[in-house]
Amino acid sequence: MRYLVRARVKPGREADLLQAVEDETIGQGSVAEGEYVRNMQEARLCADQTARWVEVCYCPTPLQEERPYWEEYFDLTRVQDAHDRRKCHDENGSGPWSCGDCDCTARLEEKLKDTGTRFLDSLRDAADSPSGKLDQR
């Protein structure tokens, strides 16, 4: 299933998050290791100062595996189904484990690109800023 994740970086964690993304150590030890970096590369910073990204998760509870890794850096403010579960091939059984290659994910990420600014750009700016705070460009 795909989820639209909304999250705020925990105060003071901006530089650590950026380092973990750049070193590709974010999510290290998780079964979804490489997805964390990809999610951050695709994430957008929106006007309400939340980072948003589309995440694929096969857990029975949304982000069950990923949550502890994300919560090291973020306060997750909302995790919602990105589309109708009845149409999800993994969820309805017509295509188990198909979410990673499903065109729904690509379409949702394309739509998200029209929202806000690139999260990593804003994160880099925050790391370089004296205030250290995220700010939409």
Q: How would you characterize the overall build of this protein?
A:
With 137 residues, the chain is of the alpha+beta class. The chain has one domain. Helix content is 34%, strand content 19%. It has six helices and five strands; from the N terminus they run βααββαβααβα. It has helices at residues 14-22, 33-42, 67-70, 89-92, 103-112, 119-128; strands at residues 2-9, 44-45, 51-56, 74-81, 117-118. Strands 4-1-3-2-5 form a five-stranded antiparallel sheet. Helix 1 packs across helix 6 (119-128). The longest helix has 10 residues, at 33-42. The model has no long low-confidence stretch (mean pLDDT 83).
SSE blueprint and pairings:
Layout: E1 2-9, H1 14-22, H2 33-42, E2 44-45, E3 51-56, H3 67-70, E4 74-81, H4 89-92, H5 103-112, E5 117-118, H6 119-128
Antiparallel strand pairs: 1-3, 1-4, 2-3, 2-5
Helix pairs in contact: 1-6
